[in-house]
Amino acid sequence: MSGCRNKKHSREKENIRDLAQIKDSGELVVLTLYSSTSYFNYRGQEMGFQYELSGQFAKSLGVTLRVEVARNVDELIHKLLSGEGDIIAYNLPITKEWKDSLLYCGEKIITHQVIVQQGGGKGKMLKDVTELIGQEVYVKPGRYYDRLVNLNNELGGGIQIHEVTNDSITTEDLITQVALGKIPYTVADNDLAKLNKTYYPNLNIDLSISFDQRSSWAVRKDCPELAAFANKWHKENVTSPAYTASMKRYFESSKMMPHSPILSLKEGKISHFDHLFKEYAKEIGWDWRMLASLAYTESNFDTTAVSWAGAKGLMQLMPATARAMGVPQGKEQNPRESVKAAIKYIMATDRSFNMIANKHERINFILASYNAGLGHIYDAMALAEKYGKDKYVWKENVETFILLKSNEEYFTDPVCKNGYYRGIETFNFVRDVTSRYENYKKKIKT
């Protein structure tokens, strides 16, 4: 009997992966969730604030990083406890419930819920929770709704709470609606609100409505060395250039591209680069004005433009894409090299959509893929097919499902292979490029 117990005990000891074992294996397995603040795929590249921190952490350990994604917090914890990962890199709420099984580690993040409203817009800007009385607030079911109900009780009633139960609308969608003036107020965690403010600078997120909630990374109880290293690393890393750059990229840098008008209607010029668009558009059989519209939407014809995600130059290619398409190192901002590489990328993408017979329809899918990356468009097509829409038609078919890719119910669907995506960007991008092209056609002759 004791022999069996000893065998079991030694087997468990073998399975322990603390700091030394992780270093020996050469790989850190990080567990996280898909979201706009933790991990997602953008234009074929892994991104997200928690993802970047995980990469920096793995580098400091001298090991490679492997990311495993769970569907929800419960699964995240289950995967950690069953040894499917070494560390949870996600803002995991610090609760009594898990203190016996987990060691919380790394940076302790303080989050709280805030009212999202327009700053100095048409509606009344609230500066105190008592001013919520008589106001309409739109929220998703769950903790945001629960907090508002409790706050309403504390204030003696009067907040007009609209519970948005429509599955296809996310908290981020509600934030967008506030920014566009369609609804007056919503509620979100401050980190999510902060990230969305980089898309919509007119938002105000200063009014807190909840107690602080502490959250951090976590490891198993049997990994004290890993926890200690994470604590030390976070303390030292928080002032590093890499950490500061990541924080700025997701929570501070504006995601908006400034736009300017046509260069010269009289001379029939859209930009200083029309000669390049005319030369290279022939290679893909496009009207050069469509290529010009794509460039304008991407960079505002600014060859020095660098996006929040690191895309560079006139055609805003991600560094890995630029390399793959043959752009020489250091030439990302050369307009000819940028256009030439974009054409190669468009040709490759065109082949990926050769099942779409209608050439004009195919262009919509190419534009969408240029903006989002191929994987997310394939996911949206798979969802369209599943829900009885035409997966070979963009408008009002596949575009509907790219919007839904920011919704957990849809991006965790088995037909989706690429997880969370902020689909509103791509939805608007295709519409912007195609409508500007129509405008160019009216005003600029070939």
From TrEMBL:
Which SUPFAM superfamilies does the entry mention?
Lysozyme-like, Periplasmic binding protein-like II
Localization (cell): Cell outer membrane
Q: Which InterPro entries match?
A: Lysozyme-like_dom_sf, Solute-binding_3/MltF_N, Transglycosylase_SLT_dom_1
Q: How is this protein situated with respect to the membrane?
A: Peripheral membrane protein
One Pfam assignment: SBP_bac_3
Domain of life where this protein originates: Bacteria
Q: Where is the signal peptide?
A: none
Asked if Mitochondrion is a keyword of the record, the answer is no
Q: What is this protein called?
A: Membrane-bound lytic murein transglycosylase F
Please name the source species: Bacteroides reticulotermitis
